[in-house]
Amino acid sequence: MAIARSKPSDKLSGWTVFGVILASLAFSQYLSTNSQYQATNTSAGQRPLFTAPASSLPNLEQEVYKQINKHRAERNLPPLALDPRLSEQARNHSQEMASGQTPFSKEAFAPRSHAISQEFPAHEVAGTLAWNSGYPAPAQAAVSYWLRSAHLDNSESLARIEGQYELAGIGVASNFKGQYYFTQILAGRR
Asked: What is the DSSP track for 81-98?
């Protein structure tokens, strides 16, 4: 991701500094009093996990699901059925990544995939992961990354999205840094 940086000015005016401090205090007060921002309890010694407005995460999950099925339709592939059990597992995995309990890696997803395949009536289980920060449409950014992955180092995501799976579970979580974590679990019925 390219980051555009502007040159800092040699001198900041007193009013600019005052404005930044005032805006920071106002935003801090907003977060502490606004009920739509929730802190998830964590074990001792960990920072609380602040999520995006609770209503927006399910919307992001639905957006990912719709975009994936749109892509599959463009490839003449059948749509994936959204499975609530797989979505719960995906959501848990995203929350663990967002809180730092689980690293963002396919190796960290492997044990969850194995456990799902043992408990879930599926002949194959696979997953795709993404995270981003600072995008106005984080779900679109995640799906775009997965679909562009054939041109990047990792072509597994695109192959899985276009694979012979029938079921999907989508989970999204965010943290206090404004990072969004996406987990998509795909399964084929036995």
From this structure: EE-HHHHHHHHHHHHHHH
H or E stretch covering 167: strand 167-174
In degrees and rounded to multiples of 5, residue 177 shows phi and psi of: -85, -5
Neighbouring residues of 149: CB distance < 8 A, sequence distance ≥ 6: 155, 156, 157, 158
Give which of 156, 157, 180, 183 is closest to 168, Cα–Cα: 183
Q: Please tell me the pTM assigned to this model.
A: 0.69
Using the Cα atoms of residue 101, residue 110, residue 168 and residue 77 in order, give the sign of their dihedral.
Answer: positive
Average pLDDT for residues 176-181, to the nearest whole number?
94
Q: Using an 8 Å Cβ cutoff, are 93 and 170 in contact?
A: no
* pLDDT tens column, 103-155: 898 788 888 887 887 777 777 888 999 999 999 999 999 999 998 865 555 56
CA–CA dist 104, 183 (Å, integer): 10
